[in-house]
Amino acid sequence: MNKVSLIALFPLFIAFHATAQTYHPDFECSRVSPSNSIAHLLCDDSDSAKQELIFDQTYYALRQQVGRAGWQSLKKEVIEDQKSNAQCLQGAPDTNGRQDVDPTCFQNETEKLTEKYKQRLSGPALEEANRPIDEHIALQKRLAELGFLPSNTKIDGVYGSSVRQAIETWQRVNNRPLVNGFISDDDAGILNGNGNNEDRQINNELNSSNISGYKTDTSTKKADLSPFHIIFLLILIIFGIIFLYIYMLPTIFAVKRGNENIGMVAFINLLLGWTLFGWCVALFMAGTMQRKEK
Q1: What does the alpha-carbon distance between residue 169 and residue 182 come to, in Å, rounded to a whole number?
Q2: N or C: which end of the chain has fewer CB within 10 A?
Q3: Which among 213, 235, 255 is the end of a domain?
Q4: CA angle, corner 67, sides to 62 and 68, nearest 5?
Q5: 153, 238: one domain
Q6: SUPFAM superfamilies, from UniProt (predicted)?
């Protein structure tokens, strides 16, 4: 099956995957505090976990966009905004301090918060946030299959720091125009379809090395000439022409003067012109030898 067929069938795979998918939060449920009502909801209710994953994906896209300098302020803002989930608590706490949570209320509040943060995204970050969570899960799984993520990585569709590093490595290996840790729509299309022999060779190298320190060797990869390369080649050609003109200047001078021994001048020019002495001798002969009579 060729790449075009694989890409064409990918949306069908996503749709099938979505119908059979059970969602889990991006944390370990076994470590949840007995009194954390929201966390227990996410561990027990797949739909609530899915909505939380969608928010988390948007949050981590914004986190990547603002950069390390804005992480702390963004985290504080999210903690403050998520206090609105308190209105979804129902009834009195049990002996563990845990309360029931209305799943529909939680999902609606989380969706509102997701849209709020999505408004601040742009470019590839916004393309990420607009992508269904099931496709993010499939893309993250694809990165693991290609060796850019450890095989034991938890596949949840949320791109934390380690996943961002893996995305940047994949972008460098595949000579993507932007190495920014975001999976743009164009990146997603290529990531879904790159299963050729060259990729498998790269994967073997990645599996035997540390991905975070992986250095891309592009010497064997074919790439189109960039404008910089074209300009550089033109400069080399121009300098080559100038050098050739200067090198053959004695012969050219002899031809223009119509010297009798043009052949001798050309012979010395070609044979010894690469030395300063030989070039000067040829130029001297071209300027002093008698001209042909007309």
Answers
A1: 11
A2: C
A3: 213
A4: 120
A5: no
A6: PGBD-like (SSF47090)
**Pair of tokens at residue 291:** 């001209």
What 3-state class would DSSP assign to 206? helix
149: CB partners within 8 A, 6+ apart = 140, 143, 162, 163, 166, 211
Q: Compute the distance between CA of residue 236 and CA of residue 205 in angstroms, rounded to an integer.
A: 36
Q: Which domain holds residue 39?
A: 3-213
State the pTM of this model: 0.60
170 shares its domain with 262: no
Q: Residues 89, 57: one domain?
A: yes
Across the chain, the runs of DSSP E, i.e. the strands, are 89-90, 100-101
- The model's pLDDT over 157-179, given as tens digits with 9 standing for 90+, comes to 999 999 999 999 999 999 999 99
Number of domains in the chain: 2
**116 and 180 share one domain:** yes
Residues 66, 129, single domain; the answer is: yes
Tokens 């693991």, residue? 144
Which residues have a Cβ under 8 Å from the Cβ of 64 and sit 6 or more positions away? 125, 159, 164, 180, 181, 182
